[in-house]
Design goal:
Helix content is about 30%, strand content about 35%. It starts with a strand and ends in an 8-residue tail after the last strand. It has helices at about 15-25, 30-40, 85-100, 115-120; strands spanning about 5-10, 45-50, 55-60, 65-75, 105-110, 125-130, 140-145. A hairpin with a 4-residue loop joins β3 (about 55-60) and β4 (about 65-75). It is of the alpha+beta class. Strands 1-2-3-4-5-7-6 form a seven-stranded mixed β-sheet, sandwiched between helices. Bound molecules: coenzyme A. Coenzyme A binds near residues 73, 74, 75 and 108.
């Protein structure tokens, strides 16, 4: 396990966030979308820093008074399986609790077995399948978790 410094993102992080996004997704979020998100403050971006580099990041939004929405989580390939996403998830869970949310939901590609496994291990449960959720026609699973998350494993 690698212990990361977790902090809020700012527009200064844009190049690194875009690099993580490009390394992690075939259809990365466009730069202007990330800038708009960070500047508007409707959603919260947090980053995991290892040795002065952004190793991963996560995005959380408040859907309503009771529920938060995990909009993204991504870790650079060379930093995976070292607990970085788990630390990011714990941090967005704290933000959602601060907002007063009792739960978190997300969507994940049906084909993304690594992410589905990560979420299941982290306390999320399958909710339903949404056909043709993504622009390429792939279906999504929605998954739900209660907050607070189970205690971080020792
Ligand atoms: C999914 C992702 C965020 C996981 O990041 P990570 O930092 O490697 O995750 P962690 O090290 O915290 O993993 C915690 C646990 O999740 C599970 N897990 C994580 N990656 C896994 C994989 N590739 N295969 C199976 N299980 C996995 C394991 O149980 C792992 O515990 P272990 O390493 O002790 O076995 C990362 O693979 C990623 O960035 N993928 C590309 C982007 C993406 O698909 N994001 C999700 C969008 S919905």
């Amino acid at each position: 396990m690698q212990i990361a410094d977790i902090d809020f993102c700012s527009v200064k992080d844009l190049n690194e966030l875009c690099a993580v996004e490009s390394a992690c997704f075939p259809a990365p979020w466009p730069r202007h979308v990330i800038v708009g998100d960070i500047e508007n403050g409707d959603v919260v971006y947090i980053k995991a820093i290892i040795m002065c580099r952004i190793a991963g990041y996560s995005v959380i939004a408040r859907s309503d008074e009771k529920e938060s929405h995990l909009m993204n989580i991504a870790v650079l390939p060379e930093f995976r399986r070292a607990g970085i996403a788990s630390q990011l998830l714990a941090a967005v869970g704290e933000i959602a609790l601060y907002w007063g949310c009792g739960g978190m939901r997300l969507e994940v590609r049906v084909s993304n077995a690594a992410a589905r496994n990560f979420y299941t291990k982290s306390g999320f449960k399958y909710d339903k399948t949404i056909n043709a959720y993504y622009s390429d026609g792939e279906a999504a699973w929605t998954m739900l978790a209660s907050l607070p998350f189970p205690k971080f494993p020792a």
